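Please review the protein record below. Tell me whether the encoded fold seems credible here:
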Amino acid sequence: MRQSYDAVVIGTGFGGAVAACRLAQAGLAVGILERGRRYPMNSFPRDFDNPLNGWLWSVGQGLFDVRPLNQMMIVQGAGYGGGSLIYANVHLRAPADVFASGWPAGYSRAALDPYYDLVAWMLDIKPITESRHLGVPPKTAAMQAAARKLGRGGQFVYPTIAVDFGEPEKIHPNRFGIEQKGCNYCGECDIGCNLLAKNTLDLNYLALAERHGAETRLQCEATRIAPSSTGYNISFIDHAAGDSEDNIQAKFLFLCGGAINSTELLLRCRDQHRTLPNLSRRLGDNYSANGDFLAFAFDTAEKLDPSRGPTITTGIVYDRGAGAERNWFIFEEGGYPKQIAGMLQILNPGGGAFGAIATMTQSELIGALRVAAGRSASATADGANSAVFLAMGRDRANGKITLAPVVNTLFVEWNVASNLPLYDAEAGLGGDIAMALGGKLALNPFWERLRQPVSVHNLGGCVMADSAERGVVNGGGEAFGYPNLFVMDGAILPGATGVNPSHTIAAVAERNIELAIRKITGNRSWRAPEAASAAPVIDPLAQVTIPVGGTMEPKTRIIGLSFTETMKGFIDKGHNPADDFLGAEKAGQAANTLIDFTLTINFPDLDAAIADPRHPGVASGVIHAAGFTGPTGAPVNNGVFNLFVDSHAPNERRMLYALPFIGADGKPYLLDGFKDVRDHGNFDVWGATSTLYTSIRDGHERTGAVVASGVMHILMPDFMRQLTTFTVSGTNDPAAKAAAIARFGRLFMGTLWDVFVKPRLP
């Protein structure tokens, strides 16, 4: 590979593949940097007993890049073809009104339709109903029947998917001369198709790019971009060469690493390396998780065989409300390989192994899931009576991607509360469909236990706009302040698409690379060679009928309850012994080392929390701790709260707090606290329920070393304010809200009766 090119493309996902292909076809010398591997036929990992054998990017540059980034769990692909290697093949166009606000001048659905048509031709998309050899899978028919049963038949669609429906497992060339096999309905789309029956980007766009002279360097991870006398210098780590460092020059640079990775690289170049200091201050803003929501149904009345067929074959559109209150999403069925059916049973609420796992912090939950999955890997359950649900919707795109100070760790800030109406509707429809299938709903455990969404469709962070005050790149993807530096991936989309976003990312890339090539070459009429072959495609969503007033509300209501609590006290750093809480409090008072927090305690599913003997809730807010946080405090996210936990005696309970935060030194800490709820002999109900014995630990796990301890209290004025903060979510019915608060009150007062009053009765 050369050291200098006309154009260098970083990343080979839906933006990078399009850019590399068209630049090479236009006659430019093109170099491609891809951090992952190439996956020929029969080369994807298949060791289901060992997650370290080819699966994880963090271990040997495997296929899946899973990143728990503070308030969002991120899942990305890593390989030659980017996310197309592990996505569910769905190509749907964003509805016209998506482009009505927030997008720069020149964008509309009508303007993008020709580029959507071009992408559709390149990826040969079609609905499952065009599968002539194997027909419609059982789960597809079951979802259509469920939609009709729920009165949602008019909103049911067969999405167009990028799958080869030729004769199953028979090798044949595609329209670009690349050998593929026909789909055999093995359900392995999301773990890499070993038949190459998915029309992944390495089989079309990237194949054409290399055919026209583009040179690819694999397992090379870009780490720094700096302007040079001839354009840009890109530094990268060559993982295939023992993590050695190298660099490459480009006159024109196209950054296409995906929303998270592209934004992270630019943030590091602006704020850490200082090589691109003039990038817009809006860098990192308008992050969107595209309304992603994951759920499951178990023990359905009939066999759905989720392992048979492509991953996604159906969708149901939900559209209700108007303006800021509008909820729009598409609810799709999923699938999974038969080999992991046993592992998924750990999420089964009807006695799966996961049911025995106590509530825990994020890192502890990840560890427990790994252990449970390992124990269940050899389970014989075929999962035929199960379903996977995936919803995508129009969230508020109000997240932010940031670098933590000092240690420069990447974080995603995500406002769950403002997006809760969308998530509640998605969960509610999931409950309705699970019921229509005769099964039981189970939610993604990170959402259920930590209120942390999982996103596989990350967008934003380097959004397009008409000025640097509103965005990072212009409408053509060129960075403000840095000519010839382009971003062409999901990072530039100004908001959620509401549907699977790959089709829109690719269509925008087709539009923008056409503009870039016309500018670079001076040929004002340049078009993609395949544009002449692309015919207009009928959008499946155009066939959806939305009733006047919107689709009906879900019948399933998941009622949540939250309240805000403020506590204040004193801690002593390095106090010995660490469990001398009162001594630490006294030393902290003498040194005036204050600690306080204001938390919102949320029970996402109140009835489930009441039924659980640990009564788990989720805590978020702000903590101030002398010697650990700065003057503005540190955010607490994915914290865990247990209302009452049984102790060793029937008349003793504990309230537990586990609050992770990042200190001013950039290091992770955990406030690990408990309230000792028992009768100490003086019937001090107030003292027992308002006194928190507090430890601060190194790291985010409760096994970390104690570095400070003390005592915190609820003060009476704060308690009076707390009583006014109770909020019920999931319903607008005043009677239902009052009933929810009453159920919580019965649990609280009933426990206090058992602890303080019952033992005194004759």
